Amino acid sequence: MTILRTKKIAFFLLFLSLIVMAFSFQRQKMDRAGQRETHLRPRKIRSLNAGRPFRVHGQRYVPGQVLVKFKPTLQNQLIDATVAAYSSKKVRKIPRLEVYQLRIPQNIPVEEMVYALNQNPDVEYAEPNFIARIALTPNDPLFNYQYALLNTGQEIGIPGLPGGKAGADVKASAAWEKTKGSADDIIASIDSGVDFSHPDLRNKVVSRGRDFVNNDFDATDDVGHGTFVAGIAAADTNNNEGVAGVAWNCRILPVKVIDENGEGDYSWLVEAIIWAADNGADVISISLGGEDSSDSLRDALKYAHDRGVVIAASAGNDGSSVLYPAAYDDYCLAVAATDYNDLRTSWSNFGPQVDVAAPGENVLGPVPIWYWPSRGYTGETPYAIGSGTSASAPHIAGMAALLKSVKPWLTADQVMDIIRYTADDVNSGQNKGKDGFIGYGRINMEKALVPIKISK
Amino acid sequence: MKKRPRWLTVFFLVLVLFTVPLAMAQTRPKTSSSSHFQPGLRFDYFSRTVSWSNDETTSELTSFIGSLVLGIEFRPGFSLAAILGYSSSAFDSVTFSQLPISVDFEGGGISSYVLGGEINARLLSGPTFGIDIVGQFLAYLGANKKWDVPGLAVSGTVEGQQTWMRASIGPQLIYREWKDFSPYIYPSFDYVWGTFTMKETIQTLSGEEKKELRGKGLFGVALGVNIDVSANIQIKGEAGVYPYQGGVDYSAMVKALISF
Known about the structure:
The structure holds 2 protein chains of 2 kinds. Chain A is α/β, with parallel strands linked by helices. Chain A folds into 2 domains: 43-55 and 134-449, Rossmann fold, CATH 3.40.50.200; 61-131, Peptidase S8 propeptide/proteinase inhibitor I9 (Alpha-Beta Plaits). Chain A is 25% helix and 21% strand. Chain A has a 7-stranded parallel beta sheet, sandwiched between helices. In chain A, strands 2, 3, 4, 5, 10 and 12 form a 6-stranded antiparallel beta sheet that branches. In chain A, helix 5 (225-234) runs parallel beside helix 8 (389-406). The longest helix of chain A has 23 residues, at 2-24. Chain B has one domain (6-235): Lipocalin, CATH 2.40.128. Helix content of chain B is 8%, strand content 69%. In chain B, the strands form 2 sheets. A 10-stranded antiparallel β-barrel of chain B has the order 1-2-3-6-7-9-10-11-12-13. In chain B, strands 4-5 form a two-stranded antiparallel sheet. Classes of the chains: A alpha/beta, B mainly beta. Strand 18 of chain A pairs parallel with strand 5 (103-106) of chain B.
């Protein structure tokens, strides 16, 4: 009996040892790779517009022009007859939407002609050919880092300003651990074009794009704004040159709708959106806007949106209501601006249409090679610091492109919602939840792209 | 009134089912010629490193199972048993990257019922050694469990549901020289397969991802022992290892059976 008991105890101990060994030899969990940090060399950089963001001003619409959409049942001969009845001439037709750009008699005010056309039962809608404007113009010289992508609390570089708050960034470096995007994913930058010779952009453009200002296929930038915003979205990255773009590997489709005066009419913008959607754009970045709503602009946004294109547009920099097209909430993300401390900038437009925010204060980006020499500054690097929601919107466009790279099956609405819901509510102290100032919050690329841990 | 946990109900049920036959068994001598009813209790632990279809990552499935065994020994050396149990089962670190917002699941165990069966048939029987063929099957019936998705600007949840099955079969070489104490070695082929479905609902965003557990078959070996505590009560203990390229999986089992 004693022997049996000893055997039992011995087995029990043996058995217990086996179980303990089983647990102790369980394989070690892999440590997650630490967050990658991207450090940029400081450069001597001049700033755009002395930190003053662009404000909408000047003429609201193109004189002597209107945009008209006739009822689909109206035949071409009747359209011609109707146009002639109003003493007008067709300038062109915006394809897909069947919207006509008309030249009206000089002696008839645009508002009166729009009113008269809208009374016609054969007209679906008529509106002025509004003018959108860019959000940045160049100014003071400065040095800086790209705090917007990775804010370690470094000095922003503008005299008199404190350093930024660590973590007040879009978490780009963490998101790049998951994806750097794909060259198949294309961001259409609808703006003033791109400097095709810029070292940070020349290898990133899909083609020479489309120029609706000069009606050709060479979207060369003669303003500087388009190069700046395109570079924020997708500058050549990890190339030992200049700045990093939000979407490392995604490419840029330049579409020019802004002339050398920094203005572009709505008809160009409408057509540009449609052209971009038809020519492979997965994302459209629009860093411009106008105060006026436009049915044709809305229809163009819907056209692109229905084809799965994600559109990000700057809210505007007047400290007033959200500009169009950003205000078309169903079809595009309206982007407000925060600064290096995650605070909303005072000039960022607000309203219920604001979806999210991204850094827009003193943001570093490329400018055309000719930019500084043409202003008398020689030997400068082709980069500048600028402020405005113009700088904010391309961050969202880059993020959307990365999302499309990782999850190409997502609809435009889903991508928009992911960007909204993963934002950090950085002003929750004053306005908890979605608000009219920064929407759902400052975007967080890490949450949107890197799997969120579900713990016990 | 405080709600009693489900496992407590199961525990009481098992206790009643176990103690009644135990009391009966104490009053009846064991006979060897006829069929025997063999109820019992069984506790299992096992871990499996599994891979997922369309996924490069691996996860570890860990399961603790407490079950009631309802067996019948039709003749010496041939028995069938049904297994009814309750399990806490967890896959660690499963990434659901097809959801609108990807999640890395480390949410711990999901409790659910387990059904299964076991067959034991004697192939060879000698005074010193015997060889049985032993096969068993366990099915973990998936239950749902919800978790909040942390850190979002809005509220959202994910809801997970696991279902897996495990089958093993192999010869059991038993050493019979010692009275009431029969150690054995059990080389077996062990196969695990199943699914893990995760649903995500975050305001207007919703998605579902179903991950197929790529059939995981491993050859392993277990060492165990049958102890005849009395003429009617038998205890069985077993611990196994399942080596694979780059690691080892484990299993352990304790079972108490009563014959009457």
